[in-house]
Amino acid sequence: MTKQERATRTRQALIRSAAVVFEQHGYAQARLTLISSGAGVSTGALHFHFENKAAVAEAVVAEASQGLRDMSAAIRRRTDTALQALVDTSHALVERLSGDPVSRAGFRLSCDGERAAAPDLRMEWHHRVRELLDEAAAAGTLADDIAREDAAAATVAVTAGFEVLGRHDSEWLSPYRLTGFWQLLLPRLAAAKTLPLLDPAGTGAVASPRAPALAASAVGEAEETAALTAEPT
Fold first, then answer.
1. Could you tell me which residues come within 8 angstroms of residue 90 by beta carbon, excluding any fewer than 6 positions away?
2. Which of 95, 86, 126 shows the shortest CA–CA distance to 110?
């Protein structure tokens, strides 16, 4: 493994460890020692990659943001209609919020009042929902009398609400809950000719998020020594 590969794996391990620590303790109470120990490296290794706790938080949010964009784009490429892509992407998002600590922590860090961090993932999600609704309208698969902004607001409000409620009860992040929402909304949202083609439970285009495994076991402090001596802490 090259030095660059080791550094990349260490950085990813730190981001995932930070996500867990931020989720468990909140931003204010999170300690860099907990983050570094969770990644299996020294605090010196952490400071080689991140200047301070704010920089670590920004990296968590950026990772979650990139994951949201990549997931949405991949699902759209595999889906025939924009409305089904919207349904599928919402299911994939809720699955990520259920199973991926980086996604959960990214949403909390960027959206909660404890610490404002850019980008705002709920605003990014709102923008993507609106894009898909605009695409559906252009294709004639959206009902004629639908106000797209109202539909986008309802979709974001429900999925964001599931994220908040799911912090204390994981059942809110179940596919069953989201399927029920789409069973209510799709008959109002979709054009009559499109509705029979839509699956409120999502389709095979929904890609299960497989978050990268923590690399801590493969990253030892000894591997970082040469790099750490080249940078101040």
1. 155, 159, 178, 182
2. 126
Q: What is the pTM of this model?
A: 0.83
Rounded Cα gap, residues 104 and 23, in angstroms: 8
Alpha-carbon gap, residue 159 to 61, rounded angstroms: 18
The C-alpha atoms of residue 81 and residue 198 are separated, in whole angstroms, by 9
Do 175 and 127 meet the contact criterion of CB atoms below 8 Å apart? no
pLDDT tens digits, one per residue of 77-86: 999 999 999 9
Q: For tokens 């409305």, what's the residue?
A: 83
78-103 burial, b at 16+ Cβ within 10 Å, e below that, comes to ebebbbbbbbbbbbbbbbbbbebbbb
In this structure, the number of other CB atoms found within 10 A of the CB of residue 76 comes to 20
pLDDT per position as a tens digit, 85-124: 999 999 999 999 999 999 999 999 987 755 555 678 999 9
Residues facing residue 142 across a β-bridge = 190
DSSP string computed for 62-129: HHHHHHHHHHHHHHHHT-SSHHHHHHHHHHHHHHHHHH-HHHHHHHHHHHSTT---SS-HHHHHHHHH
Cα 16–Cα 208–Cα 57 angle in degrees, nearest 5? 25
- With vertex at residue 27, the alpha carbon angle to CA 69 and CA 7, rounded to the nearest 5 degrees, is 60
The residue count for the chain: 233
CA-CA-CA-CA torsion sign (120, 126, 130, 132):
positive
